[in-house]
């Protein structure tokens, strides 16, 4: 499955480089958007740079309460966490909806196969996809 990503990853790299040919900042224009774009491919969706930035923002905000006393979160932080959870849930629902229609044999397809065999509940399926997104977007400090 990973070997099959060679072409799409090359396409993503070329697109990101072409989009910033005039002024290239490797960190901002390649290293930051690349992981989320590749994760999109793993999940069976193509993400624009703007969609990738939004997804990373949701992942960052979703993690705000981790390692903290929830009582120390400001109302603004709590609102950001709720918004991130809603955004991630909507994204996962979209990914799953596309997969239910296509039946692709990829990461999500295999997770869905596990769900149908009573291996993963809907909540576990959501948690695994979100964990994959967070792990892939936390390549650098927030």
Would you give an account of this structure?
By secondary structure, this protein is mostly helical. It has one domain (3-137): Cytochrome P450 (Cytochrome p450, Orthogonal Bundle), CATH 1.10.630. Helices cover 69% and strands 0% of the residues. The chain has 7 helices and no strands. Helix 1 runs antiparallel to helix 3. It starts with 5 loop residues before the first helix and ends in a 5-residue tail after the last helix. The mean pLDDT is 84.
Summarize this structure briefly:
The chain is mainly alpha-helical. It has seven helices and no strands. The protein has a single domain, classed as Orthogonal Bundle (Cytochrome p450).
State the helical fraction.
Answer: 55-70%
- Please identify which CATH superfamily we are dealing with: Cytochrome P450
CATH topology: Cytochrome p450
Q: Given this structure, which CATH class is correct?
A: Mainly Alpha
How many helices in DSSP terms? 7
Structural class category: mainly alpha
Distance between the termini: 30 Å
């Amino acid at each position: 499955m990973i070997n099959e990503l060679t072409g799409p990853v090359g396409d993503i790299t070329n697109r990101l480089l072409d989009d910033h040919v005039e002024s290239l900042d490797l960190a901002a224009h390649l290293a930051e958007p690349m992981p989320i774009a590749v994760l999109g491919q793993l999940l069976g969706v193509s993400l624009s740079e703007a969609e990738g930035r939004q997804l990373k923002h949701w992942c960052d905000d979703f993690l705000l309460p981790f390692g903290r006393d929830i009582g120390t979160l400001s109302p603004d932080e709590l609102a950001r966490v709720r918004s991130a959870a809603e955004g991630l849930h909507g994204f996962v629902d979209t990914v799953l909806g596309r997969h239910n229609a296509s039946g692709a044999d990829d990461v999500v397809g295999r997770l869905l196969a596990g769900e149908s065999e009573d291996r993963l509940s809907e909540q576990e399926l959501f948690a695994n996809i979100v964990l994959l997104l967070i792990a892939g977007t936390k390549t650098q400090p927030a």
